[in-house]
Write a structure and sequence with these properties.
The chain has 548 residues and is an alpha/beta fold. Helix content is 44%, strand content 14%. Helix 8 packs across helix 9 and helix 18 packs antiparallel against helix 20.
Length: 548
C-alpha cells in the first residue's frame, strides 16, 4: 500500500467514523468496511495524547514524514475539535458538514489556538473519490501532496531550530572560553559545524556571505606549516628592473586576521564612518598606535596628497595623488618610491594602514544592521602542525587569560618593523575553533600546554547522524557497523564511521549503500585493519554488520 492509498483509507475511515457518531446509522457509507468489524469501537479520544482511539487507524497513520493522529471531541462531532493532524503540529484535516453528512475535507495550519487557523485547501468528498472503490485519483493525490508538503516544511523548520539550539550551546561555550577544539572520528562533521558556528556568530546567511564578510578565515595545518605562514616572515619580492630579487616582511594569515579584527573593533568602538584623513587619524588612535607614529603616518599621507616633503637630500620621482582612493590603488608605486628614496618604508607603512582602514571600514558598511565585531578563525587538522613552531611567542597570547593588549608580545621579526616596539596581540573579539580526528597519529604529539589553552568537545558518530539528518536506514547501518568496530580487537570508538560518508557532494543524504560501501567505507576500513591480523576476515565481518 503506497502513501496515497494509505491516506485515502485514512480519510474514508475519518468520514465514516464521524458520520456514524452523529447518525448512529449502520447503513452509512463506510460503516461496514471500517466501523462494523471493530470490537469495542471507541467513539472519541485524543490520538496525539496516546489514547486508544489511535489503534483504530493503525493501518493508515504512519508516513515517511511522520505520523498522523485522529482526534475526536465527543461534545461536538461536527465541530472543529474533530480532526486529523500531523504529529506534534497544528496542521490538520477538518470536516465540512451539510446536515448530517460530510461534504468536503479541508486542510488548515496554525490551528492552535483554533481562532488562528488558516485555510489551505478544500476539496469535496466526491472529488476526492472517497468510497468509490478505485485507486486514488488526481484530486486525492494533490490533497495529500499539499498536506505532506506542510509537514515537510514544518520538519525542515524544526530541524533548523534544533540545529540552532545545538549551535547556540557551542556558541555560548566558545564565547566563554574563546578557544575550542572539536574532536572525534573521521566524517563526524566537525569542520562543517565550525563553519555553522561562525555563520551564526557573525550573522552570515550563507557560506558565500561568510567568506565575503572579512570576519572569517580558514586554514588547514600540515607538517610543513610554520611561523612565517601563520604569524609573519620574509617573503621574496618581484624582480626589479635589474632582475634582482629581494625580501620583504609579510604578515601571516593569522596576524593579518587579528589586525583586521582590531581595526573593525576600533571603527565600531570609535564610531568612525568616513574614509577621510581625519577619520584615518582617529582610526590609528583607536587601534592603539603611539602618537609619534600616528603623526608620521598622517604626514606621509598628506605628502602623497601634495604637501611638500621637507628633506635634506634630493627626492626623486615625487608622487602626488588626487585622493585617498588613488593612493590605495598605487601602493606598489609608493613602495618603489619608498625604497628609491630610502624612507625606510614609512610611506609604505602609512599606505598599508590606510588600506587596512579602508577595508575595515568597508566591512562595517556591508552590514545592513549594526555590525557584530566578531571574528572566527577555523584551523582544520590542528594537530597535524607543530604548534610551537607555528605560534612561536604567540603561544602566550593565545591563552584566553591573556587576550588583548595585556598579552601583547614582540614577534621574531620585530627588529624589521617600522617601529621596533610594535607589539602583536590577539584581540578579545577573535574566536578560534580547531578540528582534529582522534585516530590521526599526530594526536599524541599535541603539546599538553597547548591542550590547556583550548576547551575540548567530542562529536560522536551518533551525534553526526542526527546533525546531518541522515535517513533512518543509513542511521541503522552506521550504528550496526560502528557497534561491530567497537567490538573488534585493535579498534575502538575513535575508528567509528561518521555521517559525512553517507552524504553526497551537496550535503544531501544518500541511499546507494552498495556504492557507499565499495567506494567510501571499504577502503577506509581496510586502512584501519592493515596492521591487524586476519584483515580480510575482519573486513568481511564489518561488511556483514553494515548490510545486516
Amino acid at each position: 500500500m503506497n502513501e496515497y492509498e494509505k491516506f485515502k483509507g485514512l480519510l474514508e475511515y475519518f468520514v465514516a467514523h464521524l458520520e456514524f457518531c452523529v447518525t448512529k446509522n449502520t447503513a452509512n457509507r463506510g460503516y461496514t468496511k471500517y466501523i462494523g468489524n471493530i470490537t469495542n469501537f471507541i467513539r472519541s479520544g485524543q490520538g496525539h495524547r496516546g489514547q486508544n482511539i489511535q489503534d483504530q487507524i493503525n493501518l493508515w497513520y504512519s508516513y515517511g514524514n511522520g505520523a498522523i493522529f485522529i482526534n475526536i471531541n465527543p461534545t461536538v462531532y461536527q465541530g472543529r475539535g474533530c480532526y486529523l493532524n500531523w504529529e506534534d503540529t497544528a496542521i490538520n484535516v477538518n470536516a465540512i458538514w451539510r446536515n448530517n453528512g460530510i461534504i468536503s475535507l479541508k486542510i488548515v495550519k496554525d490551528s492552535y489556538p483554533i481562532d488562528n487557523a488558516k485555510d489551505i485547501l478544500t476539496i469535496t468528498a466526491a472529488d476526492l473519490g472517497l468510497f468509490d472503490d478505485k485507486r486514488p485519483n488526481t484530486f486525492l493525490k494533490s490533497f495529500f501532496d499539499k498536506f505532506n508538503s506542510l509537514i515537510s516544511e514544518h520538519n525542515k523548520e524544526e530541524r533548523k531550530k534544533r540545529e540552532m539550539e545545538k549551535i547556540d550551546t557551542y556558541i555560548k561555550l566558545l564565547k566563554e572560553v574563546r578557544n575550542l577544539i572539536f574532536t572525534g572520528s573521521p566524517g563526524t562533521g566537525k569542520t562543517f559545524l565550525a563553519k555553522q558556528i561562525a555563520r551564526q556568530m557573525i550573522g552570515a546567511k550563507s557560506d558565500e556571505e561568510l567568506e565575503q564578510s572579512g570576519q572569517f578565515a580558514f586554514v588547514q595545518f600540515h607538517p610543513s606549516y610554520d611561523y612565517t605562514d601563520f604569524i609573519e616572515g620574509l617573503r621574496p619580492t618581484k624582480p626589479d628592473m635589474n632582475g634582482s630579487i629581494g625580501f620583504e616582511l609579510k604578515n601571516g594569515i593569522f596576524k593579518d586576521f587579528c589586525k583586521r579584527a582590531i581595526g573593525v573593533d576600533a571603527i565600531t568602538a570609535g564610531h568612525i564612518n568616513n574614509f577621510s584623513l581625519a577619520d584615518y587619524e582617529k582610526y590609528l588612535k583607536t587601534v592603539g598606535l603611539k602618537d609619534i607614529t600616528i603623526k608620521l603616518y598622517k604626514n606621509r599621507i598628506e605628502q602623497l596628497l601634495g604637501k611638500e616633503i621637507n628633506a635634506k637630500r634630493a627626492i626623486t620621482d615625487v608622487l602626488t595623488y588626487a585622493d585617498l582612493e588613488e593612493i590605495c590603488e598605487n601602493v606598489d608605486d609608493i613602495k618603489d618610491f619608498d625604497v628609491k628614496n630610502n624612507f625606510h618604508n614609512q610611506f609604505s607603512a602609512s599606505v598599508s594602514n590606510l588600506i587596512n582602514f579602508k577595508d575595515n571600514l568597508l566591512t562595517t558598511q556591508i552590514k545592513a544592521t549594526e555590525i557584530k565585531p566578531v571574528f572566527v578563525f577555523v584551523i582544520d587538522e590542528i594537530n597535524r602542525g607543530e604548534i610551537s613552531k607555528i605560534l612561536g611567542e604567540a603561544f602566550f597570547s593565545i591563552d584566553p587569560s591573556y587576550r588583548g593588549k595585556k598579552g601583547a608580545v614582540k614577534t621574531q621579526y620585530s627588529n624589521l618593523h617600522d617601529d621596533e616596539n610594535d607589539l602583536f596581540y590577539i584581540p578579545e573579539n577573535v574566536y578560534i575553533i580547531g578540528c582534529m580526528n582522534d585516530i590521526d597519529r599526530s594526536v599524541e604529539s599535541f603539546d599538553f600546554a597547548m591542550r590547556r589553552r583550548f576547551s575540548w568537545v567530542e562529536i560522536s558518530a551518533g551525534q553526526s547522524a542526527e546533525n546531518m539528518n541522515l535517513l533512518g536506514e543509513a542511521k541503522k547501518r552506521m550504528s550496526n557497523l560502528n557497534g561491530q568496530i567497537s567490538k573488534m580487537e585493535g579498534l575502538n570508538a575513535s575508528y567509528h564511521i561518521g555521517g559525512a560518508y553517507f552524504l553526497d557532494s551537496l550535503g544531501n543524504p544518500r541511499s546507494d549503500y552498495e556504492i557507499i560501501w565499495e567506494l567510501r567505507l571499504m577502503p577506509l576500513l581496510r586502512e584501519y585493519l592493515r596492521s591487524l591480523s586476519d584483515e580480510d576476515e575482519k573486513l568481511e565481518i564489518l561488511k556483514i554488520a553494515f548490510f545486516a
